[in-house]
Amino acid sequence: MKKTQTKAFASLICSVILLAFEVWAYIETTSFKVHKRAYVQPATFPQIMICGMFIFTVILFVQSLLKVARGMKPEDPENELSASINPFTNRGVAAAFFVIVLCILYTYFFNQLGYVLVSAITSVIIMWLIGKRDLKVIIPVSIIVPLVMWFIFYKLLTVNIPMGVLQPLRDLADKF
User: What is the pTM of this model?
Assistant: First the structure.
């Protein structure tokens, strides 16, 4: 089997793509608006998460590079044939691509519709994708969790999160 068909090579390619994405994402967070009175800035949490991802991706890159460059024993699990990433034949890959598109749409509608509404819609879709079908659970969880997260970030951590069409909710919270 050729080295380019192994799991180690697939991990190497994936780590390079992830590193490029993480560098781009970190650069994007530097353009986030800075709020003078806030202790935690809007870019703080994404930058911490990106740095953590970067560290683990570098580890994956080094491990994969060493395995591909040095060669592997036949019994090494990374020497097995890599799985197909064709979304037409692999249902898991198709779902992953759908979630990626969903995340892109999430960021696109974030300012227009606001954090709470976009997060609730996204939560419903993802819970449905992973097999949750009880609407008595999906709907309340999808509404309550984003509202609680917004309250924690807005009131306790003083992070200004866009509310979009739910701006009256923020105005109500400001009265208390």
Answer: 0.57
Measured distance CA(140)–CA(134) in Å, rounded = 11
Which H, E and C letters describe 26-42, residue by residue?
HHHHCCCCCCCCCCCCC
d(CA 35, CA 125): 32
**Residue 67: phi, psi to the nearest 5?**
-70, -40
- Does 114 lie in the same domain as 77? no
**Quick one: 28 and 72 in the same domain?**
yes
Token look-up 């050729």 returns: 2
Q: Tell me: do 78 and 90 sit in the same domain.
A: no
What pLDDT, in 10s, does the model give residues 31-75?
Answer: 999 988 888 998 999 999 999 999 999 999 999 999 988 888 888
Structure tokens at 59: 């580890």
CA distances from 39 to 153, 154, 176 (A): 11, 12, 20
